[in-house]
TrEMBL record:
InterPro entries per UniProt: Cys-rich_flank_reg_C, Leu-rich_rpt, Leu-rich_rpt_typical-subtyp, LRR_dom_sf, LRR_TM_domain-containing, LRRNT
Natural source organism: Myotis myotis (Greater mouse-eared bat)
PANTHER family cross-referenced by the UniProt entry: ANTIGEN BSP, PUTATIVE-RELATED, INSULIN LIKE GROWTH FACTOR BINDING PROTEIN ACID LABILE SUBUNIT
Family: Belongs to the small leucine-rich proteoglycan (SLRP) family. SLRP class IV subfamily.
Domain LRRCT: 331-382
Entries under Gene3D superfamilies matching the protein: Ribonuclease Inhibitor
Protein name: Nyctalopin
Amino acid sequence: MLALLLPALVLGRVGAGAPEACTRPCPAACSCGLGERGCWVRCDRAGLLRVPPEFPGQAASIDLDRNGLRFLGERAFGTLPSLRRLSLRHNNLSFITPGAFRGLARLAELRLAHNGDLRYLHARTFAALGRLRRLDLAACRLFSLPERLLAGLPALRELAAPGNLFGRVPGALRGLANLTHARLERGRIEAVAAGSLLGLGRLRALSLQANRVGTVHAGAFRPCGALEHLLLNDNRLAELPAGAFRGLGRLRALHLGGNALGRVARAWFTDLAELELLYLDRNRIAFVEEGAFQNLSGLLALHLNGNRLTALAWAAFQPGFFLGRLFLFRNPWRCDCRLEWLRAWMEGSGRVAEVPCASPGSVAGLDLSRVAFGRASDGLCVDPEELNLSASSAGPSPEPVATTVSRFSSLLSKLLAPRAPVEEAANTTMGLVNASLALPSRAVGGSGRSTQFLLGSSLLLSAAQHMLFVLQTSGACHPGVAQTGLASGG
């Protein structure tokens, strides 16, 4: 019985002493406590200019963010065998002694982001951190990473180094067999060379966006066979080699937006059978080769918006079967028969929207979904004509009123024309004004029969003028009435 109770008594004493071990000694400017992940120490925004000389021996997490630390000396944190997380973000660090992290053998996460004066790291800065899994070096304005800087970090999984001044992909990444995520965006990288990513067989996500990449060598990403997300957007790519993405059979998302690509080649995406998201937006693309997307049968979304496309052939997708969404807005589309297939697909699938027409003039400003394509007698498509404009305008057209007045004027001219001379009869097509002006000159010095004709013509002219006034007035207010009158009068 005593043998059973003894372990319980020992465990009880250890548990009772744990809170005390976490709070003693706690630095004066910090707060300490016990959480789900062990003992934590928070010294953020404490106005510290140097690292406190002592921390609780059981500390698992230390936060020193937003202070004024400028220098980390040898064993800056002493020996803390339980420390898993250390954050030093937003300080003024300019130099870290190679042995500064010695004594932190179990450290798994180190955050040094936003230390803009750091600029340089010694090759042995992280030599004692064999269990480090996450390293954050964002916005430290580092010009490079020494080749051997990360060689002693076999457990490293995630490297965040955006906002630095790298001119190329750091050679320190090569050989990191367990690295799964690498963030190198917002830098000055100009090219991705063939050997830049050697030994990264488990890399799943790589971000190179917002750099100056103008060249990608063929096979540059081949060592990254497990890659699922590749971000190359907002760079300076004007062309890609045929084998740029060769070997990336597991890639699910490819971002190429915001570059200077002028076309989409068929050879670019031949190996990307698992691709789900493809971003080609905000480029200068004016042409898509036949079969460019033919192997992308699993594509969920294709972004081609913000380019210079006037046409897109269905042959770009054949012989594949594309079921995803198409984003095509902000392109100068020419909505002729070459886009009839796209209009039919918009109606059938509902997976395309906002395809504004820039030409021809008869449909400029309309969305492709509202464009009507005619059919010739042989069944072939006929490009849209001016009918699209009248079909899209609201309300009935005022043209029937004008047509009714014109026909009535013509009829009246014919009734009056036989009594006019030949040379004057030629002017009767000018309307009622010319006919009425010709009548008095013919009546002067004429016979009684001419006088009777003049009286009859005057009455007829008065009645005609009154009827024209009524027609014009009713046509302006009620276009439908004029149209009905024309139909019955004809």
